[in-house]
Amino acid sequence: MSANDATDVTELYQEFGDERLPPGQRETSAFPVLSKSGTPQWDPETWEFTVTGAVEEELSFSWEEFRELPAVTQRQDFHCVTGWSKFDCAFTGVPFPTIAERAGVRDDAVHVMFSALDDYTTDLPLEDCLRDEVLFTWSYDGEELPADHGGPLRVVTPHKYAYKGAKWVDGIEFLTEPEPGYWERRGYSETANPWNEERYS
Ligand SMILES: Nc1nc2c(c(=O)[nH]1)N[C@H]1C(S)=C(S)[C@@H](COP(=O)(O)O)O[C@H]1N2
Ligand SMILES: [Mo]
């Protein structure tokens, strides 16, 4: 599937607000890079994606195995908590629910912690993750996802500020209690709904 026949999910804002552009945001055509500590190296031979915690079956995927999972292409908006939004980004990847179904989420799971190659972490309530627009993506606008934007694999969360989307993601853990991630420990919102301007906790 090419970026041109992507499924348009940009109307999801209607669940949260009246305007496509969330309050306090300005639209930009640039795609700035925001990383806490630079772009980590990775090795396709040893890269491993793990699914752990409150699941029926813990999973692990090699890079090759992950790329064999059924993928979709969506056109999404991207909202950075620092105030810029970028419309109509085409991302290709695996929806979160596909992974969750394979692992079998236990009834006592309430949150999900995402972890990444640069030791970044971010957490979200489980219900905010169980959406088809939450993608593990390796492709942006029909090209390989650039390394500084999170390649080989990152998460995108078009219904949340973008710090909820871990770049260089290499694992998810289903949690039975909320646990703050990197920015959440530093005062950013747990839920991060852009249409409510949930920037800080
Ligand atoms: N692994 C990792 N993921 C991350 C970050 C990071 O520092 N490390 N920064 C977050 C923040 S604060 C934002 S705004 C977006 C930025 O994504 P971009 O660099 O592709 O614009 O990635 C998020 N995901
Ligand atoms: Mo950010």
UniProtKB/TrEMBL annotation:
Residues in Oxidoreductase molybdopterin-binding domain copies: 38-183
Domain of life: Archaea
InterPro entries associated with the record: OxRdtase_Mopterin-bd_dom (IPR000572), OxRdtase_Mopterin-bd_sf (IPR036374)
Pfam hit, one: Oxidored_molyb
Listed SUPFAM superfamilies: Oxidoreductase molybdopterin-binding domain
Stretches for region Disordered: 1-41
The protein, known as: Sulfite oxidase
Source organism: Natronococcus pandeyae
